[in-house]
Specification:
The structure is a homodimer. With about 280 residues, chain A is an alpha/beta fold. Chain A has 2 domains: about 55 residues, Spermidine synthase, tetramerisation domain (Spermidine Synthase, Chain: A, domain 2, Roll), CATH 2.30.140; about 220 residues, Rossmann fold (3-Layer(aba) Sandwich). Chain A has 10 helices and 12 strands. Chain A has a 7-stranded mixed sheet with strand order 8-7-6-9-10-12-11, with helices on both faces. In chain A, strands 1-2-3-4-5 form a 5-stranded antiparallel sheet, with helices on one face. Chain A is globular, with a radius of gyration of 18 Å. Strand 2 of chain A pairs antiparallel with strand 2 of chain B, so a sheet runs across the interface.
């Protein structure tokens, strides 16, 4: 293995590493917030890296983008207004806008450069950016939520980087309280929640913070994500009201294409592994 | 990344690589069949490597061993006789023997050295080797199945290495025909079937070979397996009769512990991703 031919992300906590073979480096810059790199890989299409962590590849981003959006959108009775905190690659925005009930989807990523690079290197993720229902803001998502009016949003999707650096505040009780305050009656937060194999403690702290902020109905979903640590990722939905009403018929008859998500996969993602149930007394 | 501190498996087809940081190399030998290595890792316990491919780690083997055994065993109406082809680390044997209906479980691995090393470096996987129902044979599993009497086994679990080298014949129509001939009425084969993200063509060829050998009822199950390519693995159950009768109540009330598997996870593993359904017209 000649290191110069590969991009490698080392995971210090787990003492493992994941590498993608690269054809060439397409771009590198220090933005106002983080270090951004784009590679052309041999087998995974283009790859965006933020502060040394793999963020999105052409080949496998569909798992993550579909699973952080459709389960929540098909659980809420009628989602009209969605905010995406982070999500600068625009892949989540594209999935959200596939739902015809959506009247407004606002993407709030602090770093405009992520989106500008996505437009160049992941144009397929940015296909819906000019949808009249879409709005892109490049401001602090934590402040946006804090300043928001009550009753102003149905679903807040936290499509963030890992809880270090700019995204740290997105995993806190204070942030979830602010979310609680601006969510509508059946409102919910969806948070990308790392790997249950590697980050169980973090997931527990996040679930506690959500509950204590009044978002007491929780669902953690599990799905593959090859380029993320352990290859097995999760998202957690937190709501002020019951999450039991999955609109299964709507999901089964969805009028749009997906590559991973379907009604069966939705229910499957909610199955809780034995060690996870024991860890959280589920 | 100092290469000498890491064990790295490169996956040429997918142009990705997975690495585990090592404390030290505990063992290395060329057996009569393959090159065997054992490492002590920083974060994953011990690691067995065969011909350069990660096989089993202390930390995450439970996903694979539970998912290659319990779904089939809780689908068969009353499994009494099980053969494990390969499986020399004995982890699958241990899971099979948790089922009280089992009268005989024979592990047939061509390479005795795999088991001898597992006894030293993965003793927890070998805990049931002295169970009176267990039998360990170190002979060619393909020949064993070919020479077997009709009606002599309920479940054949093919817990093999990748379909190159010694395990290549285990993915062939000829082998599945031999399985068909010695299986009982509700008999089934369970085959580890690689990654649906990386090896879809192989899975298709295997499913075709199974069907054309008379094992026409198929279920492909999906589960995480961090140290295997893409982190997302599969097993395929192939039977001569319907697989619809999951003994869900028995699984929900199983009198033994597992770490990943439970009745909900069983059903979840059977959910077919959208791209998989399309690939095989499911």
């Amino acid at each position: 293995m000649n290191p110069s031919d590969w991009f490698t992300e080392e995971l210090p906590g787990a003492d493992s590493a994941f590498s993608l073979k690269i054809k060439k480096k397409l771009h590198g810059e220090q933005s106002a917030f983080q270090f951004l790199e784009i590679y052309e890989t041999e087998g995974f299409g283009n790859l965006m890296v933020i502060d040394g962590c793999t963020m999105v590849s052409t080949r496998d981003n569909f798992f993550y983008h579909e699973m952080i959006s459709h389960p929540a959108l098909f659980t809420h009775p009628e989602p009209k207004r969605v905010w995406i905190i982070g999500g600068g690659d625009c892949g989540t925005l594209k999935e959200v806008l596939k739902h015809s009930s959506i009247e407004q989807a606002i993407q709030i990523d602090i770093d405009e450069r992520v989106t500008r690079l996505a437009e160049i290197y992941f144009p397929e993720l940015c296909e819906s950016n000019s949808d009249p229902r879409a709005e892109l803001k490049f401001i602090d998502g934590i402040k946006w939520v804090k300043d928001a009016e009550p009753n102003s949003v149905d679903i807040i999707i936290v499509d963030s980087t890992d809880p270090v650096g700019p995204a740290e505040g997105l995993f806190s009780k204070a942030f979830y309280q602010d979310c609680f305050n601006c969510l509508t009656e059946h409102g919910m937060v969806v948070q990308q929640s790392e790997s249950a194999l590697l980050h169980l403690k973090l997931i527990g702290e996040m679930r506690d913070a959500m509950s204590s902020a009044g978002l007491g109905y929780l669902q953690t979903l599990f799905f593959p994500q090859c380029i993320y640590p352990s290859g097995w990722w999760s998202a957690t939905i937190a709501s002020k009201s019951s999450l039991a009403n999955f609109r299964e018929l709507d999901a089964a008859n969805k009028p749009f294409d997906t590559r991973y998500y379907n009604a069966d996969i939705h229910k499957a993602a909610l199955a809780q592994p034995e060690f996870f149930k024991k860890a959280f007394s589920l």
